[in-house]
Amino acid sequence: MAFEILDTQIMDTGITVGRILITAIIVMAGVIIARIARMVFKRRFAPTIPKDTAKSLDKLIYYGIIVIFLLAATASQGIDLGGLIVAGGFLGIVIGFASQSVVSNLISGLFLMIEKPVRQGDNVELPDSSVSGTLIDINTFSSRIQQFDGTVVRIPNEKVFTSNIRTFALSEVRRSDVTVGIAYKEDIRKAMAVMKEAIEKNVTYSLMEPGPTFWVTELGDNSVNIWVRVWHPRDDLAEVMPILLEVIKNALDSEGIEIPFPQRVIWKGNSNE
Length: 273
Prior knowledge:
With about 270 residues, the protein is an alpha+beta fold. It has 8 helices and 8 strands; from the N terminus they run αααααββββαββαββα.
């Protein structure tokens, strides 16, 4: 009786209940093996490679094994998938045209994981998207960046991959720039010397080599503008910038060097007329 049930065909397709059961058993075995392989990978290999790469390989191993077992099961049972493949190919073309951006984001995500221009935890800036912050992760279709104000931005992988990515992770030092205006009557060299001494003494994270540098960048309407450039360790931006302007302001005040307010000169013409 049991063998008769197993040999029962489904709607004259040549596919029997027994074949379906054997196929299901093979696929279930594939799922079990895939889970075991995933567990072994996570315990033995994942800790030794970057987190984002491990995440991608984990998915590839798991679903790859399942697909292999599924194909093996159908082939072993003589199931003809020709029609299904043709239909799937036609459907794939239609879906491809309808979801070009999805496919583009998927491929861009794979390239980002392989090339690794940035890594999880890096501080990055995407000028094309006006986004800067800490990279949280790169997923299948999008990446997430936590901006410095605490908000999280989701960006399609295509935009990330095609952007000019600015990262601070590849260098141990970075530079902070500020512009300081002094009155026209003041001695420029003296003002530079005063600011340099104050920065070296009071800005703890400022590097001695390369040291602070100064340039006159503009003879403005109301002031002589001096560009101050300070180098410091990469991760100390939050400590340097809040005190840099304060130190400069206090140093110039203590030496009586004027930082002028906006001024206008009004000419009424010849006073004898």
